[in-house]
Write a structure and sequence with these properties.
Distance between the termini of chain A: 21 Å
Strand content of chain A: 25-35%
Oligomer: homodimer
Number of strands of chain A: 16
Radius of gyration of chain A: 21 Å
Strand order of the largest sheet of chain A: 6-5-4-3-2-1-16
Order of helices and strands of chain A: EEEHEHHEHEEEEHHEEEHEHHEHEEH
Number of helices of chain A: 11
Structural class of chain A: alpha/beta
Helix content of chain A: 10-25%
Shape of chain A: globular
C-alpha cells in the first residue's frame, strides 16, 4: 500500500490556506516528495510524517513555486539528524539550480546526490530507482523543461495452489516461498516461480504539473489508481488564458484522466485568482466522473485490488 | 506615526503557527521589511498591507531563516504590478547571494538595487536613506556578518507662538510655515526657523537579531520607542547553549533594553524547541519591566509623544 498526501495545491504563490503544489507519498516508512515550494515544509510539519525518512525529492521544473522551499527543507532534513544521502531528481540543470540555492544552505550533515534526467519530447523514463521507490518520468510541455512523474509498485503473481501441488512443493515452505522467493526443504531447493502465478496489476500514482496536454500523457498515466494533475483554471472560458500560460483548465486534465483510463483524478495547482476551485468541478466531471478538487493535506491510501483479503489468507497459511 | 508589525517570530524553521522572524513597518503608505524567510510572504498576505509599496528590504544576515523567502517575495512584488526599483540592503556579499537566489526568479518587471553596508566591529551606520525611510545599521556578533537596524523618524520643533510674534510673522502664514517650511505674505518672505522651536525627540524603532550582546548595542537602541530583539531561549539556564549558538536568552535582551533606556521590548526569534515563549517572560521582566513576547502579526502604531494633541491644535489654527 502507498500513502499519498497533497502538501499544497496552489500555483504561483503560497496563500495562507493553500500552500504551493507538492505531493508526498510513503511506502514502507520511506518518503518521496514531488516539488518543494516555499512553505512545503510547513505543510509537512502539519502532516506529521517527519523529515528524516525522505529518500528523494523529485522536481518537475525550476519555476520558483515548485522549488523555492528547497533550501529550508534541506536544512530541516538536516535538523532531523539525517546522515544518509538524499537524492534530488529533476530535469537537466538541476545540479546548477541546487548549487545556487544552497548559497544559503551550504552545510548539511548528509550528502546530496543529483540525478538529472535527459529531457526530450516524447522520451519517457520508464523505470528509475529513487531510494525505495520505482518512479517514471514523462516530458511535459511548459515554459521550460518539465517532467510529470509516476510512482509504481509492482506486484508479484498470486499464490497458485494447483501449481504448487503440481510442482510437488511441500506445504510447509509455501508461505516462505511467497515471501522470500526461495526456500529449502529436506535437501531440495524451491523457487517462487514454482508456486506463483503471473505478475498482477501494479499500484500506480501519477502526478503531472505544469503542462499543456501532450499526446503521450494518457499513455504515461494509463491505469493509474490516482492521477494528480494540474488544473490552473476551472472554467472552460479560461482556456485561452491557460494555453497562453502553458497550463490547463479542469476539462483538459479530465480528458487525460478519461483517455488514460485512470481510477481517480485529483486536480491541483490552482490559480490564486480561483479561491474556491470546487465551484468548477463539473467542468471536469462532465468528462471524467471520478474527479475531485484537491486541498492541502488531502490524503488517501492506495491499496492493491485484493490486498487485504490476501494478507488475511496469508496469515491463515502461516 | 509609524505602523509596526511582526511578520514572524520563529528561528531556524517556519512552524505552522510561527513563521520566520521578520518585521514590516509602514510610514506614509510606504513599507519597509526587515528579513524575509520562507513564508514571510504568507504572513504579509494575512496582514494585508500589500506588496506593491515596499521601498526596501533590509537583511540582517544570510542564514536561510532570514532570507530564504526572498525569491518568492520578489515574484509576488512583481505580480503586484510594481515597476519602481526595489532596494535591498544588507551586509557585504548581499549582491552575490541575491544573484544566486534569483536563479529561480530571473525575470522581474522592476529593477532590483543592492546596497551593501560595510561591516566592521563597532562601526555604526548612523543615517542611511532607504526610500522613504531613514535607517541606521549596527554590526552584531553572530556566526557571520550581521546587522541590527533602526528606523528613525526625525521631528521638527514645536510651533513657538512667542517666537512667531517676536519675529513679526503674520498669523495667516503660521500653519503654512509649519507645514511647508516657507511662506510669503504681502511681499515679505518667512522661514520655518522664525516660528519653530528646536527639533524634538525622534520616533525610533530598533530591531536586533541574530546576536550575542555587544557593548555598543545599548547605545544603538538608546531611547527607542520600540525595541524588537531576539531571545532564542527564555530560561537563563540555556545561557551556555545560547552563547554556543551565538544567540541570546531573554534576560540578555532585557539588559540591552534596560541599558538602552528603551520604552518597550518585544522578544522574537524563538527556538522551535520553545513552543510557548510567554512561559519565560519573567526572565526578561525582572530586568526590564516593559517586556513582551512577540507573536506573528503583533502590531503597534508608534506615535510622537504629543502627536495627536498637536494635530488637533494645528487643525484649529487652520
Amino acid at each position: 500500500m502507498l500513502d499519498v498526501a497533497l502538501l499544497g495545491t496552489g500555483g504561483m504563490m503560497p496563500l495562507p490556506n493553500r500552500f504551493l503544489t507538492s505531493l508526498i507519498c510513503r511506502l514502507n516508512g520511506r518518503l518521496l516528495v514531488i516539488d518543494s515550494g516555499e512553505s512545503t515544509q510547513v505543510s509537512m510539519k502539519l502532516l506529521g510524517w517527519g523529515f528524516k525518512d525522505i529518500d528523494a525529492i523529485c522536481f518537475t521544473h525550476f519555476h520558483a513555486d515548485h522549488i523555492s522551499g528547497l533550501p529550508g527543507l534541506l536544512l530541516s532534513i538536516g535538523n532531523s539528524c539525517r546522515e544518509e544521502p538524499l537524492l534530488l531528481v529533476g530535469p537537466p540543470g538541476l545540479g546548477e539550480v541546487v548549487r545556487c540555492l544552497r548559497v544559503i544552505a551550504p552545510e548539511l550533515p548528509y550528502p546530496v546526490e543529483i540525478m538529472e534526467l535527459p529531457y526530450k519530447k516524447g522520451l519517457i523514463h520508464e523505470e528509475v530507482r529513487a531510494g525505495g521507490f520505482l518512479i517514471g518520468a514523462c516530458p511535459l510541455d511548459h515554459r521550460m523543461p518539465c517532467f510529470g512523474y509516476r510512482v509504481v509498485l509492482k506486484r508479484a503473481g498470486k499464490f497458485d495452489v494447483e501449481k504448487a501441488r503440481a510442482n510437488g512443493v511441500p506445504l510447509k515452505v509455501w508461505s516462505r516461498l511467497q515471501k522470500t522467493g526461495a526456500a529449502e526443504c529436506d535437501g531440495a531447493a524451491y523457487t517462487a516461480d514454482m508456486v506463483m502465478g503471473p505478475p498482477r496489476k501494479p499500484l500506480k500514482l501519477a502526478y503531472c504539473t505544469d503542462t499543456r496536454p501532450v499526446p503521450w500523457l494518457p499513455g504515461f498515466v494509463r491505469g493509474s489508481d490516482l492521477f494528480v494533475c494540474e488544473g490552473m483554471y476551472g472554467d472552460d472560458s479560461f482556456l485561452e488564458n491557460a494555453a497562453d500560460k502553458m497550463h490547463m483548465v479542469f476539462g483538459e486534465a479530465a480528458k487525460i484522466a478519461r483517455d488514460g483510463e485512470v481510477n481517480e483524478l485529483w486536480l491541483t495547482h490552482f490559480s490564486p485568482a480561483m479561491p474556491d476551485p470546487g465551484n468548477f468541478i463539473d467542468f471536469a466531471r462532465r468528462i471524467f466522473k471520478n474527479s475531485r478538487t484537491g486541498y492541502d493535506r488531502m490524503q488517501k491510501t492506495l491499496r492493491f485490488e485484493d490486498e487485504e483479503e490476501e494478507e488475511a489468507a496469508l496469515e491463515s497459511v502461516d
